[in-house]
Amino acid sequence: MSALEKFGVEIFTQHNIFERISADKPFRPENPAFIFIKSGTIKLRQHFSDLELSANMFMVTDPQTIYEMVSVSGDFQSRMVSYKRDFISALSLKFNRLITYRYFRQQMNKGVPFPQNEMEVVWKSVNFLKFILDSDADMLYKKEMVEHLFSVFCYQMAGIISKEDNNSMNQMSRQEEIVFVFLTDLAEHHLTERSVEFYAERQSITTRHLSSVVKSITGKSASQIVALIVMNEAKVLLNSSNKPVSEVSSILGFSDQYAFSHFFKKHLEVSPRQYRHQFEN
């Protein structure tokens, strides 16, 4: 049984992080995670753009987002703290989890820099938690130690984030909030709803206003983002399962396999079968 299953948290280093981050095809993280970079660089592709993380940066990944690894440098050193969401919510943390979670969601898919001295402290904290998790010794209170050490880590991150950008901890601009709600709704409903009108109506705003705000914040139109999300979902289904194309099209809410193939080819210029074939060779 993995540490994630047994204790609710698991820590990966640069030596085994690619067990969880696919190096050669799009992937969806199974659980949320913090990724810390101590040296070197890693470039990930996500919804809107390529994201490069370098020394003394971290990011928060989320199971609602699909990523693709573009490149990694030879001197790459990292720690990934992967955790189950119900584990973090069960801890009796005293900071406002809702605000912190909202801020984390805001920062998702962005690399957040922080001072080297603070990185050193977090790095030591994560390494000690990893040491306890990896220990073969039959520790009487191992579960309790893991919970407390993970709580310490959470407090460290909440303190760093609130100090770095106190304003963002407390409020989003109205435009950011519109995009945040749009992306949250899209993550939940993209298998059944692909019209921009649906998402605008959920916020009681016009389609034109939603599209304008989304374009100004992300650089892409709302309809482009809807297509991107559906395409990413299609890629993951095609390269991580043996489901027939007809079943994939049904899962994604297309009326038939032809409609799905037309949509896929329009956006990627290859058919679903041709795309899948790339990963079989």
Give the secondary structure arrangement, pairings included.
Layout: H1 3-7, E1 9-13, E2 33-39, E3 42-45, E4 50-53, E5 57-61, E6 68-72, E7 77-83, H2 85-90, H3 97-107, E8 112-113, H4 116-134, H5 142-164, H6 166-170, H7 174-189, H8 196-202, H9 207-218, H10 222-240, H11 245-251, H12 257-268, H13 272-278
Helix pairs in contact: 4-5, 7-9, 8-9, 10-13, 11-12
Q: Biggest sheet, open or closed, and with what strands and sense?
A: 5 strands, antiparallel
Can you tell me the overall shape? globular
Whole-Å distance between the termini?
32 Å
- SS-derived structural category: alpha+beta
Query: How much β-strand is present in the residues?
Result: 5-15%
Oligomer: single chain
Regions with little confidence, pLDDT below 50 for 5+ residues? none
For the largest beta sheet, what order do the strands appear in spatially?
A: 1-7-2-5-8
CA-atom Rg in angstroms: 20 Å
- The count of strands amounts to 8
How much is the average pLDDT? Answer: 84
By DSSP (H or I, 4+ residues per run), the number of helices equals 13
Helix content: 40-55%
Sketch the topology as an H/E string, one letter per element: HEEEEEEEHHEHHHHHHHHHH
Protein name: AraC-like DNA-binding protein
Keywords: DNA-binding, Transcription, Transcription regulation
Domain HTH araC/xylS-type: 176-278
Pfam families: HTH_18
